[in-house]
């Protein structure tokens, strides 16, 4: 009896094994396929074996593998297109991982560093040490913006930019260097032409009436009965001369802007002085007690910005100034509810001699930006929601 039972169980086991063989085969294939997915291999397919339920599993797996193959091909093609664009761009690009080693670069970076071999794997510090000193200093200070230096009596201008972001769960740093020398050369010529036109226009506006008034003065001297008119003529000549002198002085100040005299500044005291000087709504929100900057120059910047806000058509009550702290940076903000600026005006507002005012010289904002840049910052202008303009700048609290 026991022998019969054992034989029956053995036969049952063989039957079950034969019956489950198609299912175990499919499950084994699915397991192999999923393991291949982990290796980004989506080529494995499962053949049908005639069992409807098992064929459904095979069909779903094959369908998923086909979708992943298609998506991988699309991603590969997009990456290939993106790489082609990046390699052909004139902006030198270096991408460093959290160990500060280069994981990606382009042709412009090789040209900038004058290297023929691949840059991947190099320490970023080793590569950047081969750059001109001016660019090295900009990298060390992480100073975004324009960097100018001389090579063989030729002025070179680069725009330097740094960006940090997470990639595959790790911190990465992107270094960008754009050569603007040719573009800046063309801009410089256009700028000189603009300066010459403006100075010529202003000189003619002042010298023409002065010349006319001088002839009138001669006639008055020749006719003593009209001597009482001579004083008015001379006063008018004096006013035009003073206007012309002030105009030339503004240009001279822009050309001879002295470097900032950096010093430790007690922020609360500086803010209280600004409140009295600016006479607008002021707000202070800082944690540090001291900053490091040239108080006289920054004061002049804020005076100019508030003056512009008052000339924008804004109600006086809507003009304000905020001094705040973000991490280790000091942030200055002047705002109004005036007419704001058009997109074209926003792009050109910081260019020297560009003005939207009928009698403006176009020096004020350019001079402010020059001062802020000397402190390691940059003037930023943007329109406010519901009308008005904000002008802000920031720089490090410490030396």
TrEMBL record:
Its EC number is 2.7.13.3. The keyword Repressor does not apply. GO terms for molecular function: phosphorelay sensor kinase activity. Signal peptide: none annotated. It comes from the Bacteria. Coiled coil: none annotated. It catalyses: ATP + protein L-histidine = ADP + protein N-phospho-L-histidine. Residues 198-399 form the Histidine kinase domain. SUPFAM superfamilies: ATPase domain of HSP90 chaperone/DNA topoisomerase II/histidine kinase, Homodimeric domain of signal transducing histidine kinase. It is an enzyme of class 2 (transferase). Keywords: Phosphoprotein. This is histidine kinase. It comes from Planctobacterium marinum.
């Amino acid at each position: 009896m026991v022998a019969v039972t054992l034989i029956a169980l053995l036969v049952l086991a063989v039957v079950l094994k034969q019956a489950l063989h198609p299912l175990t085969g499919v499950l084994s294939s699915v397991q192999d396929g999923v393991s291949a997915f982990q290796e980004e291999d989506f080529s494995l397919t499962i053949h049908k074996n005639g069992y409807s339920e098992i064929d459904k599993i095979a069909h779903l797996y094959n369908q998923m593998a086909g979708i992943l193959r298609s998506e991988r091909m699309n991603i590969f093609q997009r990456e290939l297109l993106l790489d082609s664009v990046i390699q052909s761009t004139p902006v030198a690009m270096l991408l460093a991982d959290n160990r500060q080693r280069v994981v990606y670069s382009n042709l412009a970076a090789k040209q900038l560093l004058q290297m023929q071999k691949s840059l991947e794997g190099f320490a970023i510090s080793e590569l950047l040490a081969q750059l001109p000193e001016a660019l090295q200093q900009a990298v060390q200070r992480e100073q975004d913006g324009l960097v100018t230096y001389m090579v063989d009596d030729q002025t070179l201008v680069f725009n330097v930019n740094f960006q940090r972001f997470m990639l595959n769960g790790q911190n990465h740093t992107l270094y960008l260097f754009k050569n603007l020398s040719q573009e800046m050369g063309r801009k410089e010529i256009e700028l000189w032409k603009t300066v010459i036109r403006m100075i010529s226009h202003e000189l003619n506006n002042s010298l023409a009436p002065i010349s006319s008034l001088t002839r009138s003065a001669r006639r008055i001297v020749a006719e003593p009965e009209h001597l009482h008119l001579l004083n008015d003529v001379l006063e008018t000549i004096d006013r035009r001369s003073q206007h012309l002198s002030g105009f030339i002085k503004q240009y001279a100040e822009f050309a001879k802007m002295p470097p900032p005299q950096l010093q430790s500044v007690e922020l609360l005291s500086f803010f209280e002085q600004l409140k009295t000087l600016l006479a607008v709504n002021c707000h202070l929100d800082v944690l540090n007690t001291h900053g490091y900057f040239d108080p006289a120059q920054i004061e002049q910047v804020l005076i100019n910005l508030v003056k512009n806000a008052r000339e924008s058509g804004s109600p006086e009550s809507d003009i304000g100034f905020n001094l705040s702290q973000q991490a280790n940076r000091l942030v200055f903000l002047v705002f109004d509810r005036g007419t704001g600026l058009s997109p074209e005006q926003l792009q050109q507002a910081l260019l020297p001699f560009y003005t939207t005012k009928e009698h403006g010289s176009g020096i004020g904002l350019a001079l402010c930006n020059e001062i802020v840049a000397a402190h390691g910052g940059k003037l930023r202008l943007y329109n406010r929601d519901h009308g008005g303009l904000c002008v802000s700048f920031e720089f490090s609290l410490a030396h």
